[in-house]
């Protein structure tokens, strides 16, 4: 999708950062799901649920607009899908809003860190059980 819309991007540093963070988050969440569940069916079920949450959190604020209350808008803005969407939007504007970009980068890195810590905890628990 980035290559098709290459003319729309202005802030290449923000774009490359967003792409790297999306990759890190995808790897982290994939490792969490892959280590938490044993069968392909449960992995497919939970990964599809996670995908719905990620996509929904990115598009619901945009589609609902002002009809969302301030509480729900705040909650959805702290979801990883919304943060990623905001980073890609920031890469398309000529004026950089450093605070928005910084908060989104820190938030996505936080989700990545949590995902990798959860994977480590699951692996230690499995090793203690002898799996």
Characterize the structure shown.
By secondary structure, the protein is mainly α. Helix content is 77%, strand content 0%. Helix 1 runs antiparallel to helix 4 (80-90), helix 1 (12-36) runs parallel beside helix 5 and helix 4 runs antiparallel to helix 5 (98-129). It is globular. It starts with 11 loop residues before the first helix and ends with a helix. 21% of the residues are buried.
Concise account of the structure shown:
With 131 residues, the chain is mostly helical. 77% of the residues lie in helices and 0% in strands.
- Contiguous low-pLDDT stretches (5 residues minimum) are none
What general outline do the C-alpha atoms trace? globular
Q: How much is the radius of gyration in Å? A: 17 Å
Distance between the termini: 40 Å
Compressed to H and E, one letter per element, the order equals HHHHH
**Chain oligomer state:** single chain
Q: Strand fraction band?
A: under 5%
| Beta strands, count | 0
Average pLDDT number: 89
Biggest sheet statistics: none
Helix content: over 70%
Number of H- or I-type helical stretches: 5
Structural classification: mainly alpha
Key words describing this protein structure:
131 residues; mainly alpha; 5 helices
Secondary structure topology:
Blueprint: H1 12-36, H2 40-64, H3 70-77, H4 80-90, H5 98-129
Helix pairs in contact: 1-4, 1-5, 2-4, 4-5
């Amino acid at each position: 999708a980035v290559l098709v819309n290459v003319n729309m991007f202005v802030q290449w540093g923000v774009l490359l950062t967003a792409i790297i963070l999306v990759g890190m988050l995808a790897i982290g969440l994939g490792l969490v799901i892959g280590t938490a569940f044993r069968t392909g069916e449960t992995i497919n079920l939970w990964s599809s649920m996670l995908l719905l949450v990620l996509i929904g959190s990115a598009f619901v604020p945009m589609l609902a607009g002002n009809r969302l209350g301030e509480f729900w808008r705040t909650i959805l803005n702290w979801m990883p899908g919304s943060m990623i969407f905001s980073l890609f939007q920031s890469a398309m504007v000529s004026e950089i809003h450093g605070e928005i970009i910084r908060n989104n980068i820190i938030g996505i890195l936080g989700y990545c860190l949590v995902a990798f810590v959860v994977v480590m905890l699951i692996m230690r628990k499995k090793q203690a059980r002898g799996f």
